[in-house]
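Final report, closing paragraph on structural work. Over the funding period we assembled a curated collection of sequence-structure pairs, and we close with a single example.
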Amino acid sequence: MAENQEGQFSLLNAGEVASRFNEFCKSGEKVVVWSKGSNEKFEFRAHAFNKDQSLLEVSLIDAKEPKVLFGLNVLGQTSQKTLQYFFSGQFSFDKMNHVYLIKLTDKIFKFEKRKNFRLSTFPRHQVKLHLNLPEDFQPPTNVLNLAKRGEQTKLFKSFLEMLHQTKSGGKTSYEINFRIQDISINGLSFIIGDLEKKFIFENIHFEKALLEFNEEEFSIPKIRVVYVMDYIDPSKPGTKLYKVGMQLMNLDLETDNRLSMKISKELRESDMNKVFEDFLK
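Its predicted structure, as stored:
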């Protein structure tokens, strides 16, 4: 993940690349192609994508022939709704089938504008993350005993309120939910204590998570813990807390766009609220 003054570039994985480019071709998105350092740009329409060969087939929109691109390593850009995508690859022309081809490199980036970076969600917004815990997860014994005896401390009670148990086919599974502190289209963060830190640690990932955002739901195929760092809450002196940062992974294009639009909308409203507050001063 890299930043510049305008925004942030995030590298897509292979699954995300296949999903995005299949969608681009399905909807016939415009693709702008140019050679590095050149001001001359050519416009194409995405037509077909071969994920096994990382080959993008495009049709020409421009009247001018892109012969200057033949055999060159080119740069390209396409977008859908609020998101932009950038790539590089080798440009060629298939004479037999009369189609233009771009052999993509393995580095495809999603671009997030700086103004859309991160929305502070607590306490104004109701945003929760629901995680399915691993099959071998067992709640700390002392927590279960306290639950039975009704002698929970405030922290234990908070932990139990986040933890949900379900039984199906003789198996017991657990889900835990967290109140989100801030969110972007690439990730989110929340606060945990020592109990949660036993199973929330760096590089662990969870499958099929669910994000609730002001009564709207987003399915997250995969989510990974990027960092766990010490956190101090002035309202809870002496309590050991940690801030967790997680990366959203393998989102399909529809979910990616919907989440981006949701965050952008809330950011715009937050900005306008602040403008009005400043106006009243």
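Residues 146-152 have pLDDT under 50 and may be disordered. The helical segments are 14-27, 141-149, 154-162, 194-197, 253-280. We thank the funder for supporting this effort.
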